[in-house]
Amino acid sequence: MCSVELSYLLPHLAGVLVLSVDGSGPVVVVRARTRSFTPASCTGCGRPSGWCHSRYVRRLADASLGGRPVLIELSVRRLYCENAACAKLTFVEQVPGLTVRYQRRTPLLQHMVEAVGVLLAGRGGARMLKVLHVGLSRCTVLSQLMRIPLPPLQTPRVLGVDDFVLYRDTYGTLLVDATTRLPLTLWEGRDAEQLSHWLREHPGTEVVCRDGSLIYRQGITDGAPEAIQVSDRFHLWQGLSRRVQEIAVAHRGCLPAARSPVVESAPSSTELSVEDAAADTRAGRHARRLFEAVHTLTDTGRPYSAVARELGMDRKTVRKYARARSWQEVMRRPPRRPSTLDPYLDHLQQRWDEGEHSAKNLHQELLGKGYLGHYQRVKMAVAPLRRGLPLDQPRERPPSPREAARWITTHPDRRSLHVSHRLRRLLEHCPELKRTHDLVRRFAGMLDNRDASSLPSWLDELSHSGLRPLAGIAGALREDQHAVAQGIATTYNSGVNEGRITDVKLQKRLMAGRAGVPLLRHRVVLIAHLRRRYADRPTSAPR
After folding, report:
1. Contact 288, 327 (CB under 8 A)
2. Cα(353)–Cα(347) distance, rounded to whole angstroms?
3. How confident is the model over 157-210, as pLDDT tens digits?
4. Are residues 274 and 443 in contact, defined by beta-carbon separation less than 8 angstroms?
5. What are 525-529's contacts with CB under 8 Å, separation 24+?
6. Nearest Cα to 40, choosing from 11, 73, 86, 79?
7. Sheet containing 182-188: order of strands
8. How far is Cα 369 from Cα 11, in angstroms, rounded to an integer?
9. Among 71, 183, 220, 289, which is 20 to 30 Å from 42 by CA?
């Protein structure tokens, strides 16, 4: 113990005695004494003094040793201050690295308590300290955490602003230094007045990265009118992708054109037999009944909301049935999953045509050909043949509106060959989706090349495209055109903001969402600096 823990303190101590006391528990007691004739600096004026007044014992808790708590009983001197002008008559000497004024824990243990409190908060920190043989309550851990001073705030040159959900419908605002990637502060609410007040109190910000929020735009304009506002590239692309999905929903009837020609050229008798089989099911009869009821009312020009109230349905369901051309569209069969039986389907069809209708015999034949599946799968596969239907071959379904929008917004180099063929057939069939695809690819080219020179003409094309969702986003982008151009042409973005928001949500979950704003602010700021400090430490070479 002496050689490991207190060796660097020997110049200040006269003697060290290690004693294990088992009477009141497995506690390691270290008894030490400071040197008697070594001058100590006054805690008031800093003048050295060796005039001893008396001695008393300080009891300090230290980090555990060998799974046992450590208690240091340190005999220290009370000295007279020899400076007549000093306000202190007597003072207690402090041992550097071992004692701190009004502290009953060593600096080593105090730093451990603070680090655990920053990382795990109150209840989790108390449990972790108990594992480390340090008995502190959750309230004590939280009080030690809140006593840690926040790092001095320096006005950033590039500021990131973003909002997050604090609880329920209450939002908060987080400010991040985009250069150092460290959080600065956070507060409850996301109004423009709070942001502008903070910017006026901390002048010097040159660039502010934000999303398309009108509130933050107004707050930055009022608080830092000379700062350059940058609209985030991710939010721009996300807003455009949502409009593309709305267009795909409006043209849902064109999506079956993306299916392969093999599926489209299937025999009409087979398609009719499958549809007749689906019409005899309960789901088929329900879908056909709703389809007829919805079209009976919507074909007369009645709005979707009125039809939904009359039929007792959701408005989105009414809209889905009204936009469908047949009841089969709203009752799509999910694509059959690949099976180990797929390579043997042709053999099953051949043997069935030859007159072998026993599923058990067919299963035995397939086992001889290398099939390792169960008999029940063969029995279910030949069930359609008993009803006069073809084998359940894997079918290619039409893409969903979300899937079609993802095809359009995906870079051509990242699309698979199959998806490229399906998208080409879809765009050849639907001119509106083709126009949407061309406009999206033009905007993607501006982002890739960081060239915003063609932004005004692109916005004009959006406005005159004849597509309502694109015309709506064109008006919003035109109002914020300068920030949008900065987001396209510059390297600034809100990526660091999104990462810090994720960290804020993690800290909220660790505290079960019960943390107040001051505690959450303390943890978010301190934990980022703690990670940075330990990440910057050089790692020792392995021995």
Report:
1. yes
2. 10
3. 999 999 998 887 889 999 999 999 999 999 999 889 999 999 999 999 999 999
4. no
5. 525/150, 525/151, 525/182, 525/183, 525/184, 525/185, 526/118, 526/145, 526/148, 526/150, 527/118, 527/119, 527/503, 528/182, 528/183, 528/500, 528/503, 529/151, 529/182
6. 79
7. 182-188, 170-177, 158-167, 207-210, 228-231
8. 86
9. 71
